[in-house]
Amino acid sequence: APGQAEMYAGLQELGVANGEDLKETLTNCTEPLKAIEQFQTENGVLLPSLQYALPFLDLHGTPRLEFHQSVFDELREKLLERVSAIALEGKVEERYKKLEDLLEKSFSLVKMPSIQPVVMCVMKHLPKVPEKKLKLVMADKDLYKACAVEVKRQIWQDNQALFGDEVSPLLKQYILEKENILFSNDISFLQNFFSPSPKTRRQGEVVQKLTQMIGKNVKLYDMVLQFLRTLFLRTRNVHYCTLRAELLMSLHDLEISEICTVDPCHKFTWCLDACIREKFVDNKRARELQGFLDGVKKGQEQVLGDLSMILCDPFAINTLALSTIRHLQDLVGQDTLPRESPDLLLLLRMLSLGQGAWDMIDSQIFKEPKMEAELITRFLPLLMSFVVDDHTFTVDQKLPSEEKGPIPYPSTIPEAFTKFLQENRIACEIGLYYILHITKQRNKNAFLRLLPALVETFSDLAFSDIFLHLLTGNLTLLSDEFALEEFCTSLFDGFFLTACSRKENVHRHVLRLLLHLHHKVAPAKLESLQKALEPTKQSGEAVKELYNQLSEKLELRKPSPAEVTETPAMELPLPTVPTPASR
């Protein structure tokens, strides 16, 4: 049987008798019992004292197989311990010479399940397994699967395609995990996509597995970075940039200096990581980051491609954008213009580098994107004027009102603001973060004033998953406003529904929001929304699933027919008014 053949694989080459030899002996002999006894003597444990002990075990009904198996297991354990000890003792070349000799003697038994762990252990401790042996392992699926990651690294470093096959499912899993968080049904302003600290994120399964696969091997690290760059170019998916930073910082946590010292982004990423942890770029770290950017020497511009990818990580963009909004508010209090703040200009420079990552890597032109002067001289002062409008309105509300009545909140948006959001990527990113900021402050007036500007934005950024994930979370703070027709019309008809039919992700985010807040929405509005959000034939499974969940929830809220008939009939027919559902 094939199983039997596997069991004895390689014994003949070493001159050790196996099952086949016994079968042959018994086939060609006249006295089978004598032949068996002779075979046992020749191939048993050659220890004189055992001659008397074995019959004693026979009396106790212990099969010889059980005895030999236990001796074998014991010896194998001792041998494994010895191999691990040899790998640590004596001079380097001597210890590896011993292991190489041992591998040479034992490799023919590598397919024998009982001996395989020993052969694998010897290979694991060899920093350079002979090429011929590696090829044999690689060619055999089972052997490849059984060998330690230390051996696989030696195989992978010269076989990019094979390494790619191992890494690819992990990268797919990583992207899926990120998307699952963005589309999670748990909506909250307290817990969102950006809540986990960098250290917590690095403990994720994919990052840990990749870290282990790379070990201290610079070549494998470079290959993974190459995969990430290629995938980022192919898909424009920014989560690959997050993984680029997480992987480097995971190796940093383990103090793998072999890799950290050769990655030119290491110190920059380390400093930025501390900012991401605090969700703010303070002055001291800003100086450090600026030093790294200013220190890019002539002839080394290619490092800008890597730095831009680190800055394109959504967690970095989030930190830079939040810091920008905070700086703008401080400048209002200080009566200072944006162009007079070096810290603010540095934040814009890094945002610009991050947002330009794809173009830079695609074009292979490694120079910092030029900052548009109007962003600093016109757009940011506009945002500051919105902050001033809020302060003025708040003060006006507190002043004793005269005959002319209270001053209304400004409702128009300067045309320039809308234009900037459509045409300038950095302006759009900062504008969106300003809108998230006012929503978090429960500033309904400012939110409704600026919302129309989001219908058309640069590259549809207002309909991107990260923005919609954060917006839906912050909208839970305005939950009581959902009972008002005007608010719902502006939010749903004026914004969300304008993109639902052409963008499936928007459809999903609206359904997520309604699943969470449906009990706050006026019944008539809810009914029209339910009709508008009905999936089409082209809709994906996720949309259908969410819609069904929402329909079930709404079904449960409807009053039962019994309750309706119990209402005493009145003489005059009255127009029916939808009853507000109980909370």
From TrEMBL:
What are the start and end residues of every segment in region (Disordered)? 557-583
Tell me a GO cellular component.
Answer: NELF complex
GO BP annotations listed: negative regulation of transcription elongation by RNA polymerase II
Q: Which InterPro entries match?
A: COBRA1
What is this protein's record name?
Answer: NELFB factor
Which source organism does the UniProt entry give? Answer: Regulus satrapa
